[in-house]
Design brief:
Helices cover 48% and strands 9% of the residues. It is mainly alpha-helical. Strand 1 and strand 2 form a beta hairpin.
């Protein structure tokens, strides 16, 4: 996969995939969303090789999903925290996890809970205009050219 070409191409799905990275990157973002921030914590939780973790953290930082912050001068140590783009990616992970639990052999997700009500959040993607969950209605793709012609 030519991620450089995809990351600058016309398709937002391809651009998003190129920036969000591979499965390791998605798991790093998942753990960052759960409060993991330090290299050794990621390495231990994920069982990932240090060179791979270094590469993924560097890419996620370069693509603006994580921010690298120094928390110790002596010795120099950094933590990785979600940026706005990284926080905006968390619902994608929740929906993927719900899909995986339903269609890929079960399993449990950490529960996402509304901090004000205490109710469990059920991750779904809905049409902002009519509130219908995607996947429950027939959809068709309109090309960018067609959309411009309709405007």
């Amino acid at each position: 996969m030519d991620t450089d070409a995809l990351s600058h191409g016309p398709c937002p799905v391809a651009r998003g995939l190129a920036r969000a990275g591979d499965g390791w990157s998605w798991l790093i973002l998942r753990d960052a969303g759960l409060g993991v921030a330090r290299f050794d914590e990621f390495r231990t939780r994920l069982g990932i090789a240090p060179n791979i973790l270094t590469s993924r953290l560097k890419a996620l930082t370069a693509h603006g999903l994580l921010e690298k912050r120094r928390y110790s001068e002596r010795p120099p140590r950094h933590e990785y925290v979600l940026t706005e783009a990284g926080r905006d990616f968390l619902p994608v992970l929740q929906v993927l996890g719900a899909w995986g639990a339903r269609h890929c052999g079960g399993g449990t997700l950490n529960r996402l809970v509304d901090a004000e009500t205490g109710h469990t959040v059920r991750a779904v993607v809905v049409d902002q205009t009519n509130g219908a969950p995607l996947g429950t209605r027939r959809l068709r793709m309109v090309t960018a050219e067609e959309a411009l012609a309709e405007a």
